[in-house]
Amino acid sequence: MDRNHLSLDPTKIDPGSRDATILLNGFGIISYINQHGCNNFGYKAKELIGKTLSYVLPDLVINENREGKIIHQYGRHRDGHTFSLFIKISSFKLHDELFFLMNLYTVKDRSRLNEQQSYQLNELVDLKFALDASSIVAITDQRGIINYVNDQFCKISKYSKDELLGKDHKIINSGHHSKEFFKELWTTISSGHVWKGELKNKAKDGTYYWVDTTIVPFLNEDGIPYQHLAIRHEVTQRKNAEEELKKMMTKIIDIQEDERKRLSRELHDGIGQNLYSHLITINRLKEEINHPLLDQLQDEATEIIEELRDISWELRPSVLDDLGLIPAIRSYLVRYTEYYHISVHFDCFLNYRLNSNKEITIYRIIQEALTNIRKYAHTEDATVTIREMDEEIRVVIEDKGKGFNINKISRGVGLFSMKERAKAAGGSIRIHSTEGKGTTVVLEIPLGA
Fold it and tell me: Which has the closest alpha carbon to 137: 60, 263, 234?
C-alpha cells in the first residue's frame, strides 16, 4: 500500500496504541519499549531492544531540536505494512548520558500527550531515586572504565566521585578473588549475559567489604555490550557472620578430633593393654589348670580386645597420624572389605602428605561416604579416587548401587557432617545420585586453603 494514501481518520485508530512508549539512548538505539509499543509494531520487546529506531520508524530523525513537537510519522509493522502515528519527543540526561523518550499516539485529544509525557518522565526520576537510595550503582563502558557512580558507591568505597570516574574497578580490588574468577565474570558480560555473584572489595582506607552484585550489559543493535550497569547490595555483616561460623565449626571439628584421638589412645594403650595382660594371665593359668571356664574366659577376653581395637580404629586410626592419609585409607579399605564384603577399588594420584586438617577431612568424608554405601546402596562394589587437579585435591567416592532422589531424601547428620567438614577445610562437596544408577560424592579442597 502507498503510504501517501494512508487514511489519517482518527475514528479508525486502534485505541490499544494510546500509551505506546519507547526509550532511546543517544545513539538512537532502543533501550526500552512497553507492551503497547510492542503491540503496535507486532514484535516482542526482546526483539526490539538493542535495535536502532529505524527498524520500526524508518523515516524518523531524532534530535534535540524536535523536542516538544508533535510529529506525524509512519511506523513499519512486522508484517511489512505501514501505519500512521503521532509522536512527541522529549530528551533528558541521566548520568551525563543523553536519552530520548518517545510517546506514540493516534488519538483525538492531543493534549493527553503532555500529560502522559510528564508522567513517564516522573516515573523515570522516581525509579532512579529508588535505585540510588537502596543500592550501590555504577555504570562502566565496554572496557570497564567507570562513567558514573552514585553516592552509595562513594560512601562504601570511601572514594570521591572524582577519584572513581575514569578509573576501572581495579581501584577497589581486594585481591581476594582469582584471575579465573574475573575471567569468568568478563566472559559472561562480554557475551551479553547478566552476571550475578558476591565480590569482596577494598575501600580507600584499607577496610574490606562484601557486595552482592548484579552486572547487566547494555547491548547495541549488533548485540555487543557498549556499557555495563552494576547494581550492588552490601552483605559484609552476613559474610563476616558466615566466616565466624566457619571458624567456630572448624574449632568444633578440631576439638572433636582431639577428643577422638585421646579416647582412641586410652582405649588402645590403657584398657586394651590391661585386657591383653589379663589374656596372658588366662593363658598361663590354662597351662597349669584344665577347666572349661578358662577356655570361655580366653574367648571372651579375645573378643573384647578385638571390639576395643575396632572402636579405637573408628575413633581415630593411629596410622593416620603416624604414616599419613594414604596408608590410613588403604588400611581402612582392607578392614571395610573384610567386614562388609564390599569390594572397593582405590586409585590414588597423590605422592605426598597434606597438612593434618586436609588429611583428616578427606579421611572422614571417605569414611562417612562408605558407611552410607554400606547402609543404603545395596551394592558389592565401590570406587574411591584421589587425585591432584591443578590447584586442588579432588576426591571421588562412587557406587553403582540403588541411588536415590536427592530432592526427596532428608539431610541427615552424615551429610551435614561431610558438608561442614569440607567447608571448614576451605573446600566444597557435591553429591549426584540417580535412582537405580548409583551415587557419586565429589570433594574438592584447594591446595592453598
Answer: 234
* 76 and 149 part of one domain: no
pLDDT per residue over 255-285, tens digit each? 777 787 778 777 767 787 888 788 888 888 8
Cβ contacts of residue 240 below 8 Å, gap of 6+?
none
Give the integer Cα–Cα distance in Å for 53 and 49: 10
Amino acid in position 302 = T
Report the alpha-carbon distance of residue 286 to residue 220 in Å, rounded.
Answer: 95
* End position of a domain, from candidates 234, 252, 280: 234
| Distances in whole angstroms, Cα of residue 357 to Cα of each of 182, 395, 421, 424 | 29, 15, 10, 9
Cβ contact 72:85 at 8 Å: yes
200 and 97 share one domain = no
For residues 157 and 164, is the Cβ–Cβ distance under 8 A? yes
pTM for the structure as a whole: 0.48
Q: pLDDT tens across 93-122, in order?
A: 777 788 888 888 764 444 454 555 555 555
Strand stretches in 280-373, DSSP E: 343-349
Cα–Cα distance, 342 to 371 (Å, whole number):
11
Measure the N-to-C terminal CA separation of the chain; round to a whole number of Å: 72
Task: Please say which residue of 262, 284, 316 terminates a domain.
Answer: 316
Does one domain contain both 293 and 324?
no
- Is 73's pLDDT higher than 70? yes
